[in-house]
Specification:
Length: 274
């Protein structure tokens, strides 16, 4: 797996893991806290400030004051929706079933607006859609709600029709899936994740459950694992097991991430909020 841990990616991952409140709402993160927390995973202060500025220009972060009046940043509404949608894939995706069917995105964008065509194609790809035919993209049926939210947020709904359906032929569905998605490429991403993070899990499994003294170490291992993992449920959108090779590495990579999350997420929170 290529090195994905850019400052911008790590900041979004940090907010996704620790920057969303429950009930009382989100609490802005002070600039000093962002610098401290990113320094722990190897990002220097100028890179943090530059990344925050870019995320603010993209509308993902907004300036806000903390409870004690310090300057900080909070998630925008769009970023919050993006992360909430992502939670269902990253943490709580149910085992996909062939009976769930498929969602189809059929689109047509005028040549005069071809820039929107590029945005639409790239976003469908990032959501995990495969290409069934020119202008016809397909994904597991469970991705409908997230797809709808995304197209609404990007103001692309006028170019797209969404359908639910079953694959009725003529090729076997497993053969069709192998055309619609790059299964070897997806498998390689899972294998890279395992190569990087399974040894980390084995090390933690050989130790007692992390306590307060290990908070920073738990955070340093958890945040990069989450930053790596959160892309995989998009590259691999959750295809039914009967359509995948018997030795599909996504099963093991999901197990490894789930166990790292269980062991390290809450332990790392003590470092985030000392």
């Amino acid at each position: 797996m290529a090195d994905l841990h850019t400052p911008r990616s790590l900041i979004i991952t940090l907010y996704g893991a620790y920057g969303r409140g429950r009930g009382a709402g989100d609490q802005p993160m002070p600039v000093a806290a962002l610098i401290r927390l990113l320094a722990a995973v190897g990002v220097d202060a100028p890179s943090v400030r530059s990344a925050v500025s870019r995320l603010k220009r993209r509308g993902l972060l907004v300036s806000a004051r903390t409870a004690d009046g310090a300057a900080g940043y909070a998630l925008s509404d769009d970023a919050r929706q993006l992360l909430d949608d992502g939670d269902r894939r990253i943490y709580g995706r149910a085992q996909p079933r062939l009976t769930d069917g498929w969602v189809l995105a059929v689109f047509s964008v005028p040549e005069a607006e071809r820039a929107k065509r590029h945005v639409l194609r790239s976003r469908l790809a990032r959501l995990g859609f495969g290409t069934a035919a020119p202008g016809v993209w397909i994904a597991p049926g469970g991705l409908y709600e997230e797809t709808r939210h995304t197209l609404e947020r990007l103001q692309l709904v006028e170019y797209v029709d969404l359908f639910r359906g079953d694959h009725l032929g003529f090729a076997a569905t497993a053969d069709a899936v192998a055309r619609w998605w790059d299964l070897p490429g997806m498998a390689k991403q899972h294998e890279d994740f395992l190569e990087r993070h399974e040894p980390v899990l084995r090390e933690w499994e050989s130790r007692p459950a992390p306590g307060g003294a290990e908070a920073e170490e738990a955070y340093r291992d958890y945040l990069p694992a989450l930053d790596s993992w959160r892309r995989l449920p998009y590259a691999d959108p959750g295809l039914p097991a009967e359509l995948l090779p018997d030795d599909w590495p996504g099963v093991r990579s999901a197990e490894v991430f789930a166990e790292l999350h269980r062991r390290l997420r809450d332990a790392g929170a003590a470092f985030v909020r000392p």
